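Technical appendix A lists one of the benchmark inputs used to test multi-chain prediction within the project. The record comprises two sequence entries:
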Amino acid sequence: DGGITQSPKYLFRKEGQNVTLSCEQNLNHDAMYWYRQDPGQGLRLIYYSQIVNDFQKGDIAEGYSVSREKKESFPLTVTSAQKNPTAFYLCASSIAAGPLRDTEAFFGQGTRLTVV
Amino acid sequence: EDQVTQSPEALRLQEGESSSLNCSYTVSGLRGLFWYRQDPGKGPEFLFTLYSAGEEKEKERLKATLTKKESFLHITAPKPEDSATYLCAVQGVIQGAQKLVFGQGTRLTINP
């Protein structure tokens, strides 16, 4: 089955540690995204990538890093510089539909990160 | 400055009571407007894509419409299983870059 797989589902981090969230897709999509969702709020864009070996900062990139070495994978590292990392993290991917329009993004099931 | 604003934040309806959710946007160079449904603790599930003003899409009890400044998600005769948070997202040029931006969502509760 095609889809987006995020792992782990739950992650606990001690203060001062870096952690990496995995996101893999087998949909052959070009674009991938990372969002953060806090309780009662919408999704805020952390990073996005439209092609392999290229990515751009979103609205809240501070304290996060990403890589896009393969089309299928877009891991997110939450560094110790992120002051309030406890949140629900969502990865998404989409396929470019042409110069004037984009297709919908499909989401993974999320990783809930908690700082202990 | 909010580019995508959804209203109301929360809505409670009785089963069978129809209503509409609103999504207003201020992005330029619209490349798509998307509606999603999100259940607690899960990733958003795609519902509709709209590209042009006047466009409409339907799926079961849901109907999405688009104008140049806003989109509506109409819910006809809802059932309790329609309870969820509904998210609107817009793909367009924001602060000089192509981005996919989400509204904060409308939390819909359908009472039996």
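The CA atoms of residues 49 and 55 of chain A lie 4 Å apart. Chain A touches chain B through 29 residues (CB under 8 Å). Comparable benchmark entries are summarised in Table A2.
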